[in-house]
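Re: [ENG-882] Designed sequences occasionally contain unexpected residues at chain ends

Forwarding the minimal case from QA. Structure tokens:
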């Protein structure tokens, strides 16, 4: 039988390994777009050491991994990666596909989410089908949390659902989201993940589903936010919202 101290030690080792793996993966992804000189200048780490991290010859300590995560945020390298792929037409419509389905972008965004929420005891990641699924899948895996996907259609093989309805405006339509009632449990610590925040209606609907299930919403992570209209739909119970790239309008 394992003692509490043994469980805590195992938890710390597991977290350390996840930090190390995530940091190496993030650096390998960034190396596809930046030179070692660029990364060294941004992260204040010698090129030779960065090379050894990327090749896997050396793993960064947990402290160094956390330091790299902080500097990636401060220097905006991940945000610049998203800017390279971002497509918005003259009507303000976002082509989300190049972002939501680019595995390199998703790896970096998931790393970003991990650095922001790894200490929040998240045990469930909630998203809406369809474009949010790839990012939510990566985030749930990295955080070692279960994945809950709300869909617009009921699966006939599932008998019991939570349901929420909300109004979409273009065109005006009453839309339903369905989540199997066995997925989220009372007391679950839920992170809502979405590819795009724009009107806020999907975010509000997902938060209502989490509340129906008795979950506690830890925060929201989004790949992209367009404008600020979505903020009016954010429930007061949500304290922490993290966005990889926020595009201001006007």
């Amino acid at each position: 039988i394992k003692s509490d101290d043994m469980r805590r030690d195992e938890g710390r080792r597991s977290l350390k390994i996840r930090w190390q793996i995530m940091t190496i993966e993030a650096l390998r992804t960034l190396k596809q777009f930046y030179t070692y000189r660029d990364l060294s200048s941004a992260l204040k780490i010698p090129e030779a050491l960065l090379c050894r991290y990327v090749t896997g010859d050396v793993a960064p300590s947990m402290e160094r991994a956390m330091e790299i995560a902080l500097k990636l945020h401060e220097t905006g390298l991940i945000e610049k990666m998203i800017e390279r792929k971002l497509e918005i037409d003259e009507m303000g419509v976002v082509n989300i596909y190049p972002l939501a389905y680019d595995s390199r972008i998703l790896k970096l965004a998931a790393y970003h989410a991990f650095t922001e929420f790894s200490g929040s005891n998240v045990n469930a990641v909630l998203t809406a089908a369809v474009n949010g699924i790839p990012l939510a899948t990566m985030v749930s895996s990295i955080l070692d949390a279960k994945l809950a996907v709300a869909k617009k259609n009921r699966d006939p093989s599932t008998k019991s659902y939570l349901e929420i309805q909300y109004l979409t405006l273009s065109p005006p339509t009453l839309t339903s989201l369905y989540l199997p009632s066995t997925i989220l449990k009372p007391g679950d610590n839920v992170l809502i993940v979405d590819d795009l925040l724009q009107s806020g209606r999907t975010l509000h609907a997902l938060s209502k589903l989490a509340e129906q299930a008795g979950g506690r919403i830890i925060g929201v992570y989004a790949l992209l936010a367009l404008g600020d209209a979505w903020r009016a739909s954010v429930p007061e119970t949500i304290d922490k919202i993290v966005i990889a790239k926020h595009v201001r309008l006007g």
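QA comment: On inspection the terminal residues look reasonable. Residues 28 and 223 are 20 Å apart (CA to CA). Proposing we downgrade this to a documentation issue.
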